[in-house]
């Protein structure tokens, strides 16, 4: 998302237990810059505005514009764009694993591996679209299949080496927790080190709550809610049918056999969350088909609305055109669902307890990292008298 703004998370605690959680965001409404612009101008601005999940943001903007303009479908080009979205998910997951997970293990991040990851990622667009322009109204397919397959093999090999220490295939083959224990035994891979630490510190169920995964959203009803004049009613603090939901890799991958088994023991706690991220990082390069793609766009009277699965969850763009220019533009990012004041992170944080304030802080940092705000956050712990 945009670099400006942050999320403040305040934990009020007493006797080692969290008594209350307050989550507030100062993130700006980035979509306001699109008002008065043409669709072509919007699509030129999006890459400059969004540094994280840029492909997902650009694809959502493109599809919303195309729907509002009633342009015909582009099945082959959209298949290539979905390919880019899923590769971006791999990059985002691997980037966070390589940069953040070592800190949770009191290690230094592998910046060489991060640089190699980003170098590979930058080359994919030029393998699929002319001049690497994938998200324009006039983008032209230009597929270099041999080069694309070569890059995919290079990406898979890098992830296997730096995250799984050669054990990627074994990780993907697991279907239950017993097999996971066998895979972790004596394993020095970064992924294994983190999961072993969860077991050692008995953090596998940390943050478990009864917040469910976001169901499929009816496009017409979603459009009705998003066009409300009160932005805070949905776009800033979304709920569906009066309930908070989570939209994360865990909710997206919860049907996998391994996660089904883990969730039966630990709900939506830390262990299933981290495993879900690892599953996507490992599985997507193997088949580029493990995620749900874009939902059918909603179009009516100059309105275009689209739902896209980004790395951290569901991304929604809605725009309204009048006389060829944007009259209204609204975005709901995964952060709005997951960091809702009463959402999955807030409910998980309320369950924390530790021997002292530092222990609470450490637990909270693990949980926040697992849910992943995708923007800077500030954690404040306030003791209650």
Automatic annotation (TrEMBL):
Transmembrane regions: none
Record SUPFAM superfamilies: HydB/Nqo4-like
Q: Which Gene3D superfamilies match?
A: Cytochrome-c3 Hydrogenase, chain B
Q: What InterPro entries does the database record attribute to this sequence?
A: NiFe-Hase_large, NiFe/NiFeSe_hydrgnase_LSU
Q: What is this protein called?
A: Nickel-dependent hydrogenase large subunit
């Amino acid at each position: 998302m945009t670099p400006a703004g942050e999320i403040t998370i305040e934990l009020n605690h007493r006797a080692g237990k969290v008594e209350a959680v307050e989550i507030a965001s100062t993130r700006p409404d980035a979509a306001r810059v699109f008002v008065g612009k043409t669709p072509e101008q919007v699509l030129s601005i999006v890459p400059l505005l969004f540094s994280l999940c840029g492909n997902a943001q650009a694809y959502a903007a493109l599809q919303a514009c195309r729907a509002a303009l009633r342009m015909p479908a582009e099945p082959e080009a959209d298949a290539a764009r979905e390919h880019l979205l899923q590769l971006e998910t791999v990059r985002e997951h691997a980037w966070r694993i390589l940069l953040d997970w070592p800190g949770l293990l009191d290690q230094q991040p592998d910046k060489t591996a991060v640089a190699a990851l980003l170098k590979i990622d930058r080359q994919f667009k030029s393998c699929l679209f002319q001049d690497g322009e994938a998200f324009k109204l006039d983008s032209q397919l230009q597929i270099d299949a041999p080069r694309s397959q070569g890059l995919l093999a290079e990406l898979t090999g890098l992830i296997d080496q730096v995250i799984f220490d050669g054990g990627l295939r074994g990780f993907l083959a697991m279907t239950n927790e017993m097999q996971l224990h066998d895979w972790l035994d004596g394993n020095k891979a970064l992924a294994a080190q983190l999961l072993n630490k969860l077991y050692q510190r008995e953090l596998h169920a940390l943050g478990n709550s009864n917040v469910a995964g976001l169901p499929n959203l009816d496009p017409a009803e979603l459009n009705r809610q998003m066009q409300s004049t009160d932005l805070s009613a949905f776009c800033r603090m979304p709920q569906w049918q009066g309930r908070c939901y989570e939209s994360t890799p865990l909710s997206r991958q919860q049907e996998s056999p391994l996660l089904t088994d883990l969730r039966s023991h630990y709900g939506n706690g830390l262990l299933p969350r981290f495993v879900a991220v690892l599953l996507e990082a490992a599985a997507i390069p193997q088949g580029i088909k493990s995620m749900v793609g874009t939902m059918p766009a909603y179009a009516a009277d100059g309105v275009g609305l689209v739902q896209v699965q980004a790395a951290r969850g569901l991304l929604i763009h809605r725009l309204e055109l009048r006389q060829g220019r944007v009259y209204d533009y609204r975005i709901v990012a995964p952060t709005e669902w997951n960091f809702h004041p009463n959402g999955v992170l807030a409910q998980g944080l309320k369950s924390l307890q530790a021997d002292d304030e530092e222990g609470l802080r450490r637990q909270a940092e693990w949980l926040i990292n697992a849910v992943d705000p995708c923007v800077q956050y500030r954690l404040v712990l306030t003791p209650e008298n």
